[in-house]
Structures are given as structure tokens and as C-alpha cells.
Specification:
alpha/beta; Spore Coat Polysaccharide Biosynthesis Protein SpsA, Chain A; seven-stranded mixed sheet; globular
């Protein structure tokens, strides 16, 4: 059961994000995988990661994640993570469970059910090419949907019929830094000094991003 780890880099995310994402998964997944990064600027990408040229030129931001669904991705299973997700614990039980039980797609729930979408595209696992209709639909409609309210995951959600929400099986394995971990005190963001044992992923959607919190002990230890 071949596993392919695929990320996409560009815009505010320098190539160091793809490199660190690979390194974190390598430390925290006891399973062989091949790594790929969809980018039109692969300079600086480590040799363990194979670059993939974007399938459509001029695609911006989170819409690049629709390329994951294309039938042109590597054979096997596709595991994707947003490059601003920080891995802080062993993902092996979660990924092995997903590979055994996924029917259509596995992911985790969006922290705030943004625009009514429970589905989050920050982490996805599915069989390569099995959701090609989503990519083909995107190919037909982009760039007309570029300003779609809620972005890629809200647009994708209605096109999925059997979603395995991994946080319902592994409660607490993923948390949002912004909405579930940090506390806003005026203009200051109060960060936790310790992490719960069950936590494996920290989702950095919105701001701040990992490179902006390099002095936080969690980033020093894990984002490398």
C-alpha cells in the first residue's frame, strides 16, 4: 500500500516549509513514504522531495490544493498536509487507521466549521485519482471560482459523500493554535507552555505562522 506525501509551496510559504514538513513527518511516521511538492520554484527543495510542476499556471493560494485530486498524482494513497501544520507527536496510529478504514477520504474537522463546512483540507488522505472528478470540475470552473466564499475546502465539501473524520476516532490529536490553544490578551497572543499528550498536529491557519514564532519552545523543538 504505497503512501505518497504531497505538499504544495508558494506565495507566503518559502521552500523551507516543504522541507520542514517532510522532516517532521519522517520523524513522526513509522512507515515508508515517497515525498512530493507541487511548486513552480523548486530551488532549495531537498533531494528526498520530488518537485511536481503545477498542472495549471496562475493558480493562487489554497486553490493549488485541488491539484492533489488529479489523476496525474503518483499511484497509491495520497497524504497531504498544509505546510503550516506543525507535527508534534507520533502520527503512525492515525495514518494506519486511515489507510485501513478510508472509503472516500479521511481528514479532520475544521476547527470552526468555516462557512458551514465541517470538512478541512488541511490534512487529507485518499486513493490517488479516486477523486479526479473534483479536479476536473475545478479545471472547468477556475478562475471563475477564485473568489468563492470560504475557498477550496468550502467549495470541495459538497462534492464529497463519505468523509472519515479522524478527530472523531482520535480526540484531541489535532488542535488549532488560533482557536483552540492560544489566548488573545489585547494585542498579545498567549501561547501554551506545554502540550497535551494526545496532541499530534497544530494547525496554524491564519496568523501567526510558524516562522513568526521561532522563539516559542514548541517551534524550536518541532519545526525543523
Amino acid at each position: 500500500m504505497k503512501l505518497n506525501f504531497v505538499t504544495t509551496c508558494g506565495g507566503p510559504y518559502g521552500i523551507e516549509y516543504a522541507n520542514k514538513s517532510y522532516a517532521m513527518l519522517k520523524r513522526h511516521l513509522d512507515r515508508e513514504f515517497d515525498a512530493y511538492c507541487i511548486t513552480d520554484a523548486p530551488e532549495g527543495l531537498i533531494s528526498e522531495i520530488t518537485p511536481i510542476q503545477p498542472l495549471i499556471s496562475g493558480v493562487e493560494g489554497w486553490w493549488n490544493k485541488l491539484f492533489f485530486f488529479s489523476k496525474f498524482m503518483p499511484d497509491g494513497y495520497i497524504l497531504t498536509l498544509d505546510v503550516d501544520v506543525v507535527i508534534v507527536g507520533d502520527l503512525t496510529p492515525v495514518i494506519e487507521y486511515a489507510l485501513k478504514h478510508v472509503v472516500e477520504i479521511a481528514c479532520y474537522s475544521d476547527a470552526i466549521h468555516w462557512e458551514g463546512s465541517k470538512f478541512s483540507s488541511s490534512m487529507m488522505l485518499f486513493r490517488s485519482g479516486s477523486l479526479a472528478h473534483i479536479y476536473e470540475n475545478f479545471q472547468e470552473k477556475y478562475p471563475g471560482i477564485k473568489d468563492f466564499r470560504g475557498g477550496d475546502q468550502v467549495w470541495t465539501f459538497p462534492q464529497l459523500t463519505d468523509i472519515l473524520y479522524l478527530d472523531e476516532v482520535f480526540p484531541g490529536f489535532k488542535r488549532s493554535l488560533k482557536f483552540q490553544m492560544a489566548q488573545q490578551q489585547g494585542a498579545q497572543l498567549l501561547l501554551p507552555t506545554s502540550l497535551p499528550d494526545e496532541l499530534k498536529l497544530i494547525d496554524f491557519h491564519g496568523r501567526p505562522k510558524p516562522h513568526e514564532l521561532k522563539e516559542w519552545a514548541v517551534i524550536e523543538e518541532h519545526w525543523r
